[in-house]
Design a protein that fits this description.
By secondary structure, this protein is mainly α. About 70% of the residues lie in helices and about 0% in strands. The longest helix is centred in the middle third of the chain and has 26 residues, at about 65-90.
Amino acid sequence: MRLSRRGIEALLALDRHGLPVVLRARSTAADRLAVALSHLGRGGLVWFGLVLAIGSGRRPLRRRAGVLAGAIAIGSAFAVSTLLARLVQRPRPCDRGVRSLIPCPDGGSFPSDPAAAAFAAAEVLGWLQPRARPWLGSAAALLALSRIAVGAHYPTDVLAGAGIGASLGRVVRTAAIRLTGCAE
């Protein structure tokens, strides 16, 4: 997909105007929640833990197949976003003078690794445990928003990470359905 000049300008405007909106919403209670969620999502570990807890969920799969599908989705989303961040090398808001609520992470800002892992997990785990799908999607969105609120990412960083994660999660889910014969 190729973005037009107008599309790129719209995304940059989202960063210019969206980041200050999120940062103005800071308060002591919101800050604590944002910091907790931001730390919780780093490295995708919470999502790997949920994969182990859910296993195959409500699907008639072997537990190992469910765990493997979740781990592949989360791991590939994290790997792809990390590789892209190294290639793009976009400075983080906290590298550009935005007061960060957490130590400024190393590496590029675009795309967001935690958002990619969260949305990949929400996609696959929501398939494995359909009743949890709304909660998983909401948790992924809150975690992604927390990365903006703490000053570690721009809005477009988390949107790109969310897109990468959701897309890879769908690919893994589709592959798991085909390989196992398990219904959608």
